[in-house]
């Protein structure tokens, strides 16, 4: 009895929402020849907003990966091709995909594949089910399974990768010769397995993009690094040790010690030019936003030094109150900013340049700058005006943890109306902050330092910080900006001032 097989199914990069038009391939979770299930995560991509894990809506065997790690792929372009296993007939036999069927094919969905159809409907509706930390809720597992039977479709590995070491070639040849003596059918499996090993189709281990980039920048082969993390994960310290070991090996080599470098001749000196680093992902998003801010917004900056000793005392009092949540200085500054925006609502605005209108917002969506391994991001605390100081502290801590792990969903990085930037953690006093477009204002907080300060006519040492405030001159004049900054300074010096706004 003949067997029935489903056609190849092409899965394209889905719309990841938030107006994103492309994504960079960070790491493939599967390789050609792997068996995948519906909703299994097959690739991790990086957008301008977040790292995203993309599941496949089909089940079957991976036939083709249409993009390499490190490349940018526009939304809607082919991502992966999956061919379903053949359905066994009455005689129990089954046939895999044929080589002649491995061309680019449309992406039909089998009529009986309800799970795949449901996924496609969600993806077309803008479902957020592809974000890290979120699933569709009905995927059975994300583990990978290898086909035991050798694949017969052509390899997609480049010719340079197909060249194996002599030992591997000899082993493969010996295996092929032994198999030929036993018959063509018996030799197909080992030969295909050796070819798969030679072409390097094994899936990479789960390694963070930062670690891969560090290894690539220093010329370290990530496959040769001994992992120390759980489940064989290569960590940052593993790559750093490999870099240090490579440096010691180079410096101690006999050739390096015995041969002195010859003086370079002017005629033979060649220069490779500056290193070109493409703007991608978060770095490009930050560059575009800051460039647009400088181009569109007529900003001005004002600043003031304040005695923060009273604020530190208030922080200590909150910690001893047993609230169960650690209230840091960032949360206290957030509480002060929310109160200040209530008094000066002009600063809680955005400008619609096309309609030439100022949009004054009722709710405060407070953004705060967070430096992560992927770059600078600005998570947004929504409905900050409805939160207590303790609630603000808890939400700031939650978003910070997500940001550092690269797990912030895109919607958590948009829609802010005001930004708070505590650059004092970098050990600097002040700056001229660039407004986070399309917002109208940003408050920067410098480091806390001991300075001589006059209190009640007496010179004493106090904890002093500098506040820098940038504002859009289109939404207000200097009087409003100065009033806001003075209110913030008064609350820092005398936190009891906030009681009038509680």
Automatic annotation (TrEMBL):
<feature type="domain" description="Peripheral subunit-binding (PSBD)">
    <location>
        <begin position="206"/>
        <end position="243"/>
    </location>
</feature>
<keyword id="KW-0450">Lipoyl</keyword>
<dbReference type="InterPro" id="IPR004167">
    <property type="entry name" value="PSBD"/>
</dbReference>
<dbReference type="InterPro" id="IPR011053">
    <property type="entry name" value="Single_hybrid_motif"/>
</dbReference>
<dbReference type="InterPro" id="IPR023213">
    <property type="entry name" value="CAT-like_dom_sf"/>
</dbReference>
<feature type="domain" description="Lipoyl-binding">
    <location>
        <begin position="8"/>
        <end position="83"/>
    </location>
</feature>
<dbReference type="InterPro" id="IPR001078">
    <property type="entry name" value="2-oxoacid_DH_actylTfrase"/>
</dbReference>
<dbReference type="InterPro" id="IPR036625">
    <property type="entry name" value="E3-bd_dom_sf"/>
</dbReference>
<protein>
    <recommendedName>
        <fullName>Dihydrolipoamide acetyltransferase component of pyruvate dehydrogenase complex</fullName>
        <ecNumber>2.3.1.-</ecNumber>
    </recommendedName>
</protein>
<feature type="compositionally biased region" description="Low complexity">
    <location>
        <begin position="105"/>
        <end position="114"/>
    </location>
</feature>
<keyword id="KW-0012">Acyltransferase</keyword>
<feature type="region of interest" description="Disordered">
    <location>
        <begin position="89"/>
        <end position="164"/>
    </location>
</feature>
<feature type="compositionally biased region" description="Low complexity">
    <location>
        <begin position="151"/>
        <end position="164"/>
    </location>
</feature>
<dbReference type="Pfam" id="PF00198">
    <property type="entry name" value="2-oxoacid_dh"/>
</dbReference>
<keyword id="KW-0808">Transferase</keyword>
<dbReference type="GO" id="GO:0031405">
    <property type="term" value="F:lipoic acid binding"/>
</dbReference>
<feature type="region of interest" description="Disordered">
    <location>
        <begin position="247"/>
        <end position="275"/>
    </location>
</feature>
<dbReference type="Pfam" id="PF02817">
    <property type="entry name" value="E3_binding"/>
</dbReference>
<comment type="similarity">
    <text>Belongs to the 2-oxoacid dehydrogenase family.</text>
</comment>
<dbReference type="InterPro" id="IPR003016">
    <property type="entry name" value="2-oxoA_DH_lipoyl-BS"/>
</dbReference>
<dbReference type="InterPro" id="IPR050743">
    <property type="entry name" value="2-oxoacid_DH_E2_comp"/>
</dbReference>
<dbReference type="GO" id="GO:0005737">
    <property type="term" value="C:cytoplasm"/>
</dbReference>
<dbReference type="InterPro" id="IPR000089">
    <property type="entry name" value="Biotin_lipoyl"/>
</dbReference>
<dbReference type="Pfam" id="PF00364">
    <property type="entry name" value="Biotin_lipoyl"/>
</dbReference>
<dbReference type="GO" id="GO:0016407">
    <property type="term" value="F:acetyltransferase activity"/>
</dbReference>
């Amino acid at each position: 009895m003949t067997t029935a097989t489903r056609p190849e199914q092409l899965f394209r990069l889905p719309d990841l929402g938030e107006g994103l038009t492309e994504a960079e391939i960070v790491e493939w979770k599967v390789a050609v020849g792997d068996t995948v299930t519906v909703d299994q995560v097959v690739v991790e991509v990086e957008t301008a907003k977040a790292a995203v894990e993309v599941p496949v809506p089909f089940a079957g065997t991976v036939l083709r990966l249409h993009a390499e790690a490190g490349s940018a792929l526009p939304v809607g372009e082919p991502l992966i091709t999956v061919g379903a296993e053949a359905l066994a007939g009455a005689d129990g036999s089954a046939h895999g995909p044929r080589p002649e069927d491995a061309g680019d094919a449309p992406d039909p969905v089998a009529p009986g594949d309800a799970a795949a159809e449901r996924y496609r409907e969600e993806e077309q509706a803008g479902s957020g089910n592809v974000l890290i930390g979120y699933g569709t809720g009905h995927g059975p597992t994300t583990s990978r399974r290898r086909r035991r039977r050798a694949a017969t479709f052509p390899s997609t590995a480049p010719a340079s990768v197909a060249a194996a070491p002599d030992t591997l070639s000899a082993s493969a040849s010996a295996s092929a010769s032994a198999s030929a003596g036993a018959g063509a059918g018996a030799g197909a499996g080992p030969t295909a397995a050796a070819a798969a090993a030679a072409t390097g189709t094994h899936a990479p281990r789960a390694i963070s993009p930062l670690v891969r980039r560090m290894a690539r920048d220093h010329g370290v082969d990530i496959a040769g690094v001994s992992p120390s993390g759980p489940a064989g994960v290569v960590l940052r310290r593993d790559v750093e040790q490999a870099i240090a070991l490579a440096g010691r090996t180079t410096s101690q080599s006999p050739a390096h010690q015995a041969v002195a470098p010859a003086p370079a001749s002017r005629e033979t000196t060649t220069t490779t030019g500056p290193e070109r680093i493409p703007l991608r992902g978060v770095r490009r998003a930050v560059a575009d936003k800051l460039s647009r801010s400088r181009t569109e917004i007529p900003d001005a900056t004002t600043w003031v030094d304040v005695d923060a000793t009273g604020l530190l005392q208030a922080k200590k009092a909150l910690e001893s109150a047993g609230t169960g949540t650690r209230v840091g200085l960032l949360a206290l500054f957030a509480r002060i900013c929310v109160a200040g925006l209530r008094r000066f609502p002009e600063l809680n605005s955005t400008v619609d340049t096309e309609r030439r209108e100022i949009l004054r917002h009722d709710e405060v969506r407070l953004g705060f700058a967070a430096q992560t391994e992927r770059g600078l991001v600005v998570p947004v605390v929504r409905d900050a005006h409805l939160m207590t100081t303790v609630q603000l502290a808890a939400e700031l801590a939650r978003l910070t943890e997500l940001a550092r792990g690269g797990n912030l969903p895109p919607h958590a990085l948009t829609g802010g109306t005001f930004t708070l930037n505590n650059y004092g953690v970098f050990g600097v006093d002040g700056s001229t902050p660039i407004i986070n477009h399309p917002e109208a204002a940003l408050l920067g907080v410098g480091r806390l330092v001991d300075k001589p300060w006059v209190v009640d006519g007496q010179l004493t040492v106090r904890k002093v910080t500098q506040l820098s405030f940038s504002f859009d001159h289109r939404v207000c004049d200097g009087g409003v900006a100065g009033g806001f900054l003075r209110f913030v300074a008064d609350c820092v010096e005398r936190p009891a001032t906030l009681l009038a706004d509680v």
